[in-house]
Design brief:
Layout lengths: L2 H11 L4 H28 L1 H16 L8 H8 L3
Length: about 80
Amino acid sequence: MVTPVLSLFVAELSEGATASGIIMAAMGAVSAVSALVIGQMGDRIGHTMVLSVCLVGSALSHFPQALVQQVWHLFLLRLPL
């Protein structure tokens, strides 16, 4: 989901823009930590394998985000685990 569209989607799910900001801040923090971990994994087992697994994981995790009904569901699904 493109970040500007995320704010509009969250606005439909909830009454305030605060939830959108919290989701984006959490995404940034978890993405920074994930980049370190994925970089180290790439050095150990190979970048091609890590990128392939990340591609499949990303594809599988983006579809359910369109089906959420609550903001906290979207919050959990937007975090790269």
